[in-house]
Design a protein that fits this description.
The chain has 11 helices and 14 strands. By secondary structure, it is of the alpha/beta class.
């Protein structure tokens, strides 16, 4: 009798949670959510499985997730195996042709398929792509060329994604793309995610990171800023509150919002099921940046 009661309580809790998620499911059904996948959530097996399940669940309830990934740690492992010394300047990988060959091999041929296989294993329907596929992303040389084949996004043509999303597939996109002459470039995955979100007019851009979000004090996790407008985010960069590795992530959010994305989120990927916490709860998780105070009120 006691066992039956415990089972009944567990079932009741599960049904209650599903019921409470209904308004969010209704709100986001048919909406596009671009997720930049990286950091600890990509390395730790328990977090990897949680992300895969979150994405599969989002797709199952009618949300249309798009995944963009990098893969820096695995690139470094393969460069080491091939006795190629990784080089960095200003926090960015210097990418000569030999390094670019390894980057393309690892991101497109290995990491991308690991993510696709992981999603398919938990019941998702994933398709692996890179910038070359369907002319999805065209690159241009980043900066003055001193970093070699490091690229920026010159153009995005997301038409290839529409039929996949409408059919319930989860596109998984590596951040490698060719320039107009067909030369492959290594592009920051945050940048690719932001530009794709803008081109898809996504409801949300979510960047999974290894920090709680934007902090007023980098040494104090309790100083998390939960909500920001676009103007406030620009002000934090100008004032030096946002600095270091958080600067390009915040700038990525700003560019996406300026191009029509409804909301951008910098989320702690070290928290299990952080994607579901962000999409299906009022409080969310991490830092949300929106275009105007009216969006915060809504």
């Amino acid at each position: 009798m006691t066992t039956d009661l415990l089972v009944s309580q567990a079932d009741s809790l599960r049904v209650s949670v599903l019921s409470e998620a209904l308004p969010y499911i209704q709100r986001f059904t048919g909406r596009r959510v671009v997720v930049k996948y990286g950091g600890a959530a990509m390395v730790r097996e328990d977090l990897r499985d949680a992300v895969f399940r979150d994405l599969a669940l989002l797709a199952c309830v009618g949300v249309q997730p798009v995944v963009v990934h990098g893969g820096g740690p695995e690139i470094n492992q393969w460069l080491s195996r091939l006795a190629i010394e990784p080089q960095f300047s200003g926090g960015l990988r210097v990418t000569d042709q030999l390094t670019m060959d390894v980057v393309e091999m690892v991101l497109v041929g290995r990491v991308n398929k690991q993510i696709v296989n992981g999603l398919n294993r938990v019941g998702g329907k994933a398709v692996g792509l890179c910038g070359s596929d369907g002319g999805l992303v065209q690159a241009r040389l980043w900066g003055d060329g001193s970093h070699g084949l490091v690229g920026d996004v010159a153009a995005v043509e997301p038409d290839v994604l529409g039929p996949l999303l409408e059919a319930g597939y989860i596109p998984v996109i590596s951040s490698v793309a060719p320039d107009a002459e067909g030369q492959a470039h290594n592009i920051n995955a945050d940048t690719v995610a932001g530009e794709l979100a803008a081109s898809l007019q996504a409801e949300k851009l979510i960047l999974l990171t290894d920090t709680p979000g934007i902090l007023r004090n980098r040494q104090d996790p309790g100083s998390l800023i939960r909500q920001l407008t676009l103007a406030e985010a620009r002000g934090l960069i100008a004032d030096g509150v946002v600095e270091g590795g958080m600067t390009p992530k915040t700038e990525c959010c700003i560019r996406a919002l300026a191009q029509g994305v409804a909301a951008a989120h910098i989320v702690d990927g070290r928290v299990p099921h952080s994607l579901l916490l962000e999409v299906f709860t009022d409080a969310g998780i991490g830092t949300m940046v929106v275009g105007s105070p009216a969006r915060l009120a809504g």
